[in-house]
Amino acid sequence: MALDDTMIETLTSKIDHKLDELSTDTTYISCIYRVPEKPRKEKEAAYTPRLVSIGPLHRERGQLQGMELCKLRCLRNFSNRFKVHLRDLVRFVARDERYIREYYGDTINLEGEQLTEVFLLDGIFVIEVFLKNHFFKLRERGDIVFENRWMMSDLLHDMLLLENQLPLQIITDLFSFVDPSLLNGITLHALAHEFFKDVGNTGKLPLTQRCCLARHFVELLRYLHSPTHPKEQPSSPATKFENTRSATELQQAGVKFRRAEESCLFNVVFNRGELTLPSLIVNDLTETFFRNLIAFEHCGYNSKDITSYVIFMDNLINTPNDVDLLVKHGIIKNELGESKIVAELFNNLYKEVVTETDDFYFAKLCEDLNAYSRDPFHEFKSKWFRWRMMLRCDYFSNPWSFISLLAASVLLILTVIQTVCSILQVK
Length: 427
Description:
Elements: H1 5-21, H2 37-42, H3 67-81, H4 86-94, H5 97-101, H6 112-134, H7 149-159, H8 168-175, H9 180-183, H10 188-195, H11 217-225, H12 247-252, E1 256-259, E2 269-271, E3 274-277, E4 280-282, H13 286-300, H14 305-316, H15 320-328, E5 332-334, H16 339-348, H17 363-374, H18 376-395, H19 399-426
Parallel strand pairs: 1-3, 4-5
Antiparallel strand pairs: 2-3
Helix pairs in contact: 3-6, 4-6, 6-8, 6-10, 11-13, 13-14, 14-16, 15-16
């Protein structure tokens, strides 16, 4: 049915109203997203909060409601400690509710009053957690978060989730109410850096000016772990990406491994047969950390640096033996226990097939490693290494295997001698 003039005017008015509601400030383009269905199905637990909802996306989850009382206590303590009236806090958050809503990629089906309450309670909760993490004197007796190890572990997990983020802008604004005499110059970003010290290489990496541009904690961690040097271009940039060999295969071809002094994950250097890599602590937060940074890169970023690192490590690690080799050289510190668990972690972090080198940070490095491994001398060395290992496993694994091989060799030699002597006698 064709629209008449009245219907056209009505529709025009509706669309015009929606256009008026759009923010003209591009600073606040959405950056907090729901994780796409495909990675979520692969590992639901890596994207779902266990203990607490931060922000509006998971506030209705029943199992997280127990922490709402804790948030209220945090708000009361904050207000009393810093002599701040609740009305002032509410008014302060309410003024920015509209543009902060636009940080979220999904439509938030909450009224302004409800969303203001979420931002206030969650923002104060995060600040209180950071303050108590640094200032032990602020912790009350019976604090359920800091006196329960599992709760702190779950809280760290939850604050790494892309869907469980609060805009840093609102947390920074509320942080201005903290008494400066208590902080003594300590910034919110410094407190966050300390809180996340056991995540990835955070504790070994310095805060930079770029970190202050982060719009939420996932982006803060991404900035912190980003490359410090531009990507090297492969000699044939148009070619398709080709996986490099695993750590043990590279070792068989003559590659030596060494731990780098630097902590940036991207300071990987291959020079004259030596591959130098920074160390990485692999613990129970590693999978959540990498999965959510990868999801963030694929939802809203052009560069895929963290994804590149995960793919590169997946290439190096195929079996537990590869993990053992990297652990031996101090490149991986395994806090998960069995090497098999670490191998499975890296083999399952990213399932997409990489075909182009454009987005892959380590394309040039892999090209150099492949060229080195395929050199005739190193190819022979690799084959000789595998043959020697096969002999060791099949024939020299225990004394009886060696004796059997020796006896068989002696018997073969005697048989040959007897045959030669028989031929000579006939003649």
